[in-house]
Amino acid sequence: NAGVMQNPRHLVRRRGQEARLRCSPMKGHSHVYWYRQLPEEGLKFMVYLQKENIIDESGMPKERFSAEFPKEGPSILRIQQVVRGDSAAYFCASSPDITEAFFGQGTRLTVV
Amino acid sequence: DAKTTQPTSMDCAEGRAANLPCNHSTISGNEYVYWYRQIHSQGPQYIIHGLKNNETNEMASLIITEDRKSSTLILPHATLRDTAVYYCIVRVGGTNAGKSTFGDGTTLTVKP
Q: Under DSSP, is residue A48 helix (H, G, I), strand (E, B) or coil?
């Protein structure tokens, strides 16, 4: 059983471009979470999704950020018109229920 | 969720026990203590959790004081690969594990 897969592992975008981060949960997991870790800081919860539904987006910035978890395929975190402050590591976690979550290796976004 | 306080950093000699403290003086009766670690550039990894009894697994032991206001994570024979940031998290039992609040943690450096 493969772990949580995130891709790409590293992503470089110029200011103003769009960044799309993908997360494939572990087999049988229907809950997906996204976290952001700014340089030298701890992880901050962004959004919690189940298949085709956003359950909790209390940690998502109000503008430019969106997330989806379609019926088929990976979960996508989309950042439009990226700025330098978006440079961070973005981690995805998945779980079969609410009891425990497993994290992926992360995507490191660098905005130049 | 109750707030936790951890030392910023600790050193440990390879092969010796690493004892990582955590204060959670405002913990409620239904809140569990969880420990995770984050090895450089990787996603967080679950280590252990407990309510009030001491717990042990293949990775570590968790000692919770009788008043539950503090706990200690013990790595019995630290190796260089245990160098990581260790997070102590307090969370109500039955709540969503994917929405954990990560603080700054303790940076443990295991030295040869």
A: strand
